[in-house]
Amino acid sequence: MSDHIEYEARTVRPYAVTGGRVRSARSDLPLEALVELLPGAAASRGLTPEKRAILQHASYDFISIAELSALLHMPLGVVRILVADLSDAKFIRVHTSQPVEVNTGQSPALSLSVLESVLNGISAL
After folding, report:
1. Is the peptide bond before 108 cis (omega within 30 degrees of 0)?
2. Sign of the CA dihedral with 68 first, then 90, 50, and 60 last
3. Could you tell me which of 89, 95, 75, 92 has the C-alpha nearest to residue 21?
4. DSSP conformational letter for 22
5. What are residue 92's DSSP bridge partners?
């Protein structure tokens, strides 16, 4: 019986954290989008513990949405909604890579974001 209650608490909690929302206007943020803390946000009050934790992690350096999800042990969809909320409230800025077409001499042209991803993959080796 105890395991059943613990399972229910884990499955209900993400729903409760987002106020029942499963999507937001900007919940399609990419995994690699970087979160930056804006000045004055660290002193904010009245935020949920989850939102405060996001601000705390973002206070050290830029951090991706995927990293926040892992650090907070929360589903990616929930973190996306919370990040969108914090961005709308002007506590954080979200940086996404917008594809820029670059003529590489190849046909079709590769986007700059694809080239950056390849370079990052090579650097990680």
Report:
1. yes
2. positive
3. 75
4. S
5. 37
Residue range 33-81, pLDDT digits in tens = 899 998 877 667 788 888 899 999 998 889 999 999 999 888 888 889 8
By the 8 A CB rule, do 31 and 66 touch? yes
Beta bridge partners, 64, equal 34
Strand partners, 85: none
What's the whole-number mean pLDDT along residues 100-116?
A: 56
pLDDT at 9: 43
Measured distance CA(121)–CA(25) in Å, rounded: 31
Question: Which tokens sit at 123?
Answer: 């650097």
Containing 68, the helix (H) or strand (E) segment is: helix 65-72
Instruction: Say if residue 112 is exposed, middle or buried (CB neighbours under 10 Å; 0-12, 13-18, 19+).
Output: middle
